C-alpha cells in the first residue's frame, strides 16, 4: 500500500505547527476475493478453523456411524 504525507493544522490553534498524517493512495484495483485471501492468510483464527474443518472432514465418518 502506498501513502503520502499531508500536513494538517490544529483548528483550535492556527498558530501551532501542523502535524503530518499518512493518507492512503490507490495503486490499482483489488477484488473482494483477494482481500479475503489476504485476511485468511494473516488470521490465526482462520487457520485454526481450517484445521478443525480438515479434522472433521477426515474423522467425520466416524462421528456419523
How would you sum up this structure, described in words?
There is one protein chain. This protein has one domain (2-64). It contains 2 helices and 2 strands. The chain has helices at 32-42, 44-64, and strands spanning 2-8, 19-25. The chain is elongated, with a radius of gyration of 23 Å. It starts with a strand and ends with a helix. 0% of the residues are buried.
What labels would you give this structure?
2 helices; two-stranded antiparallel ribbon; alpha+beta
Compose a concise summary of this entry.
This protein is an alpha+beta fold. The chain has helices at 32-42, 44-64; strands at residues 2-8, 19-25.
Write the layout of secondary structure elements.
Layout: E1 2-8, E2 19-25, H1 32-42, H2 44-64
Amino acid at each position: 500500500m502506498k501513502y503520502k504525507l499531508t500536513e494538517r493544522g490544529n483548528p483550535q490553534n492556527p498558530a501551532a505547527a501542523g502535524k503530518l498524517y499518512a493518507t492512503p493512495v490507490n495503486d490499482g484495483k483489488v477484488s473482494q476475493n483477494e482481500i479475503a485471501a489476504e485476511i485468511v492468510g494473516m488470521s490465526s483464527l482462520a487457520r485454526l478453523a481450517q484445521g478443525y474443518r480438515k479434522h472433521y472432514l477426515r474423522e467425520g465418518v466416524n462421528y456419523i456411524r
